[in-house]
Amino acid sequence: AQSVTQLDSQVPVFEEAPVELRCNYSSSVSVYLFWYVQYPNQGLQLLLKYLSGSTLVESINGFEAEFNKSQTSFHLRKPSVHISDTAEYFCAVSDIVAGSYQLTFGKGTKLSVIP
Amino acid sequence: DADVTQTPRNRITKTGKRIMLECSQTKGHDRMYWYRQDPGLGLRLIYYSFDVKDINKGEISDGYSVSRQAQAKFSLSLESAIPNQTALYFCATQGQPNTEAFFGQGTRLTVV
Question: With 0-12 CB in 10 A as exposed, 13-18 as middle and 19+ as buried, what is A46?
Fold first, then answer.
């Protein structure tokens, strides 16, 4: 069975500091990788995704993630965080399970940006 | 109007009662999912469906059942609710495996 591991359940960081949220997944022949963000009292929204091609993918609000096949990782980074980035972030993998693609999520990382 | 609509948004029910959570979508997607979210456990897959005639169990299907009445509708039922089913439930749709999944706003269910 596929699995997604987010190594940190909570990450506090000061405003304008850099941040990295870590994600590792169980390997497979072909996977699609996603980061979703959940703001308080809301549903999940797509932040960015890796399908193929360039291993570095970017979002419109300054986040980026790098696909590393050898380390089966897809860590999320931002060079300078804002208060508005406070949210819970979920890494997700779309992979073949029992013959069909299934979307599996990690347990989430709560990012708290401190003024 | 939202692309993925869940009803009700909040529900309190008693132990042993049957309850249905409904999800409808206007995305035209074939793939639909039900997840539950618990603090510290992330989203866990309950059931998923890739077609009106296709129903698949997820990681935690015990105590739940689903019905895919049409491409646009996917309902989750708790036949006899118990307190540890208290959680936030999300419905999601997806066009293809390599595309974005769209989520509803969630249903907060409390079983007392």
Answer: middle
One pLDDT digit (tens) per residue for chain A, 115 residues: 578 999 999 999 999 999 999 999 986 667 889 999 999 888 899 999 988 888 888 888 899 999 998 889 999 999 999 999 999 999 999 887 777 778 889 999 999 999 9
Main-chain dihedrals φ then ψ at residue B40, nearest 5 degrees: 80, -5
Contact B35 A94 (CB under 8 A): no
Disruptive mutation site among A101, A109, A110 for chain B (greatest number of B CBs within 10 Å): A101
Q: Cite the beta strand spans of B1-112 per DSSP E.
A: 4-7, 10-13, 19-25, 31-38, 42-51, 54-57, 65-70, 73-78, 87-94, 101-103, 107-111
